[in-house]
Amino acid sequence: MLTHNLKKSNGDVFLYYERVPENAYIFAHWVGRQDLDTVRRGGYAYLDMMKEQACAKLLNSHKELIGPWDIATDWISTYWTPAAVTLGLRYMAQVLAPGVYGQMSFHQLHQHIGNLLEIKIFENEKEAIDWLTSLPEPNKSTVLHN
Fold first, then answer.
1. CATH code for the domain in which residue 59 is found
2. Is residue 141 in a domain?
3. Is residue 146, in this structure, part of any structural domain at all?
4. CB 60 within 8 A of CB 27
5. Residue 143 lies in a domain
6. Is-contact 138 103, C-beta < 8 A?
7. What's the domain range around 71?
8. Rounded CA gap, 56 and 75, in Å?
9. Burial level of 3, CB count in 10 A (0-12/13-18/19+)?
10. What's the structural domain count of the chain?
């Protein structure tokens, strides 16, 4: 079970997230429809975790995401991604949403941030975990802090 969750004003959980033991990676599982507010709240939650302890790897799962979220692309590409990279993020395993609109939103974002992170796309979480855990830890001296 994931250790943290964020809820919409109606009480529905839109994001489960946790730092996997040994700081192996941060795991984020998005649920349902997203908007700019939910994406920002989730993004800030990741950044807060990385401020507490740098983590080079993120598993971002959209397997239960519904619909598009491209309204947040500008914020993710101009604010969140540069901030996350500054805090040490280097690798992102992306599990695609089952629907075409969520997939299109991610592919649009990938065009904007693909040069900042090593991003690999997966159909399921097991393959994403296998890839992330196979990666070496980055040299700690290359991780920048605010």
1. 3.30.750.24
2. no
3. no
4. no
5. no
6. no
7. 4-134
8. 21
9. exposed
10. 1
In angstroms, rounded to a whole number, what is the distance separating the alpha carbons of residues 6 and 28? 11
Question: What does the block give as tokens for 115?
Answer: 């040069």
- Amino acid sitting at position 66: I
* Secondary structure (3-state) at 2: coil
Q: How far apart are CA 11 and CA 46, in angstroms?
A: 20
Amino acid at 123: E
Q: How many residues does the chain have?
A: 146
Q: Which residues contact 103 (CB under 8 A, 6 or more apart)?
A: 96, 97
Per-residue pLDDT of the chain (146 residues; tens, 9 = 90+): 458 999 999 999 999 999 998 889 999 999 999 999 999 999 999 999 999 999 999 999 999 999 888 888 899 999 999 999 999 999 999 998 888 877 787 877 778 786 889 989 999 999 999 999 999 877 654 444 44
Q: Is residue 145 part of a domain?
A: no
Q: Check if the beta carbon of residue 59 is closer than 8 Å to that of residue 25.
A: yes
Q: Which DSSP helix (H) or strand (E) runs through 137? A: none
C-alpha span between 114 and 70 (Å, rounded): 16
